[in-house]
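re: ur question from yesterday

yeah so i grabbed the chain u mentioned. its 407 aa long if i counted rite. heres the sequnce exactly as i have it in my notes:
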Amino acid sequence: MSVISIFSGNFCHEDAIVKEVVKATGFTLTDQQGIVKKASSLSKIAESKIMEAFMAKTSIFNKFTHEKERSIAYLRLAIAGLLEQDSIILTGFPVHLIPTNISHVLRTCLIADLKHRVGNADTEGHSEKAAVKLIKEHEKNSTAWVKDLFSVEDPWSISIYDMVVPVDKVTIKDAVALILEKSKSGAVAYTQRSKDAVKDFHLAALVETALANEGHNIGVSAKNGVVKLTINNNVLMLKKLEEDITSIANKVSGVTSVEIEIGKEFYQTDIYRKYDFQVPSKLLLVDDEREFVQTLSERLLLRDMTSAVAYDGESALNIVDEDEPEVMILDLKMPGIDGIEVLRKVKASKPGIEVIILTGHGSEADRRVCMELGAFAYLHKPVDIDLLSETLKKANQKIKDNLSRVK
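ran it thru and got these structure tokens back, copy pasting raw so excuse formatting
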């Protein structure tokens, strides 16, 4: 029996169509939320964080943490596990992660024009304005998602599906009939070749997540036990990286040999760095002295600590609202919103963020106020970089300990 994958625009009768297909086939349904839940269980990454992988806007910290790529790696592993059984239906953004050489999957898309979708949204209690906003947001995310995966601008392009069903032109009953008819086609039969492709996909996903668990973001493919690792970023010590990732891959059960290739993006200017779990992954430096903060950022980088930068309190608070850093290094004396006010607002809205005060002008009274407001530490400029590094590691450990207690 085949597998049916369904990706849909919002307000395109997806729930009704899927329900009828499940009823007619007896297939087991795992929807997007179910796939995300499985990926979360495998990775220990929060479901809400994995859901962020489907959003067009990527966190400014992602180039340091590879959080989106790690989430996608575990989504692949979750899907690979599901594909080891047939007679299933999968829905949502994750279905696009199924490799094209797994041929027993009927890739289906449900879409309609804007007028039809807005009308359908109205029956669900949404105003026209709210519906248009929801549709545009979903299409923005869908477009970014398929562009990253397939280099295709149109999320409804027939080039990435076996069939695109225009639900504004056919009834729900007819849409279901079309899906059922195509699912019985020999083109999506469960063959040994397709079964082997699932096995390869599963092995590649196991290696990819093993690499992610060690802080690496490396492209992975597999065939008959031979794993190919693709390095897509420039590196300072290529030989050392090759040795590290080969060692990790070889430890995964089922791997018979490892090959390494240089990807097409290897010669870009950004330098690849392994993600270090011992230091804060989302570090924000806030200081209006641009030369100082750039120098500090470079000095931390030499200690494998990457950071984002804000030059005023308002920008820092915007980043906190949108991307939520784990640790902030915060100056006190800044124009506009000063450091104490930033600290107060951060601790009121996001108390889990650890804030290290680093100032050249603070008084003892300022120190007392900051510590009472919940600052993790209060340091003076010029700061000893080793002391600051150690303080950052301690803040990171506190965050990890707090997370462990919550779990």
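noticed a couple things. The radius of gyration is 25 Å. also The chain has 15 helices and 13 strands.
anyway ttyl
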